[in-house]
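Run log // design_07
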């Protein structure tokens, strides 16, 4: 009778008293992100009160530290792509609980930008951005995106591929000295990592906008004539001339300007300027015409002489009639 009474009392107490919370293990950080070959430290804590041992189960040499209710694991060189260390808490009755950490091991190299050291203006060329090393755990095709920009202007973008290219016709005024930026993003676990690279465009150009001007273009003997040649290009062009006559012609230090201080009839003709650099050449020309002195004064002298003769003859005839 007494035993039955005690059993009933125990049952009543089991309903009235709060149930103890189940024993738990927790790992921090739970899903760390680690670059291949890098290091990571994991800490496992237990809320259990009756365990005999908390330990790590791993396939490599362990570097652990432990204390009351916790144990840490230090991995100095992560070289396994699918490492998942297991933390285990064991009990006296041979029972155990465990939890596993998923380590997101990745390789993500800084993008490489491939372009020619010199790009000629007006020619079709190509820019390539490539990620040479890219892997996230056992994923063959990680979630990666790439963009190519010229300054703030987006040129091209892609998703899912580790390489991107952009074809363009270079412009000296638009592209020379511009920054080409390659940005890459990859999803690793719950994070998005990004890296970038920058290269500067160096645009070259054969001579262009070549022109020749002269003052004056029509001249008389002994006047001063100045002829100028202008051109653009990168590198800046060198100049040479094809002239009707080299006699009495003076050139400026860069040969862009020629001067004739006392022009004569033999300076009449076509003045051709040739602009040249290592990428090409282009020319322009102008015709300068010689004007002979006006002969109207000779006609005037003849007319005056004839009038004088006629006048003198008229007077002589008048006197003869008398």
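design_07 sequence
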């Amino acid at each position: 009778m007494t035993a039955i009474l005690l059993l009933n009392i125990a049952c009543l107490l089991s309903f009235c008293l709060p149930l103890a919370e189940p024993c738990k293990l927790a790992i921090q950080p739970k899903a760390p992100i680690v670059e291949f070959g890098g290091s990571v430290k994991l800490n496992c804590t237990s809320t259990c009160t009756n365990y005999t041992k908390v330990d790590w189960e791993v396939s490599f040499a362990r570097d652990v530290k432990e204390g009351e209710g916790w144990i840490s694991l230090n991995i100095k060189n992560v070289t396994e792509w699918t490492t998942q260390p297991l933390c285990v808490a064991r009990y006296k009755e041979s029972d155990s609980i465990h939890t596993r950490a998923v380590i997101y091991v990745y390789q993500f190299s800084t993008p490489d930008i491939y372009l020619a050291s010199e790009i000629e203006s007006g020619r079709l060329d190509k820019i390539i951005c490539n990620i040479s090393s890219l892997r996230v755990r056992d994923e063959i095709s990680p979630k990666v995106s790439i963009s190519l920009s010229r300054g703030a202007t987006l040129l091209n973008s892609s998703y899912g591929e580790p390489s991107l290219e952009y074809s363009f016709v270079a412009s000296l005024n638009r592209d020379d000295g511009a920054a080409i930026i390659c940005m890459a993003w990859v999803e690793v676990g719950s994070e998005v990592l990004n890296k970038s690279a920058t290269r500067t465009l160096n645009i070259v150009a054969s001579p262009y906008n070549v022109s020749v001007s002269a003052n004056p273009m029509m001249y008389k003997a002994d006047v001063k004539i100045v002829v100028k040649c202008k051109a653009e290009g990168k590198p800046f062009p060198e100049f040479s001339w094809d002239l009707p006559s080299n006699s009495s012609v003076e050139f400026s230090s860069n040969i862009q300007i020629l001067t004739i201080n006392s022009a004569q009839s033999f300076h009449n003709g076509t003045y051709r300027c040739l602009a040249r650099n290592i990428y090409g050449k282009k020319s322009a020309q102008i015709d300068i015409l010689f004007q002979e002195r006006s002969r109207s004064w000779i006609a005037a002298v003849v007319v005056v002489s004839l009038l004088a003769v006629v006048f003198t003859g008229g007077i002589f005839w008048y006197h003869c009639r008398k």
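The chain has three helices and 26 strands.
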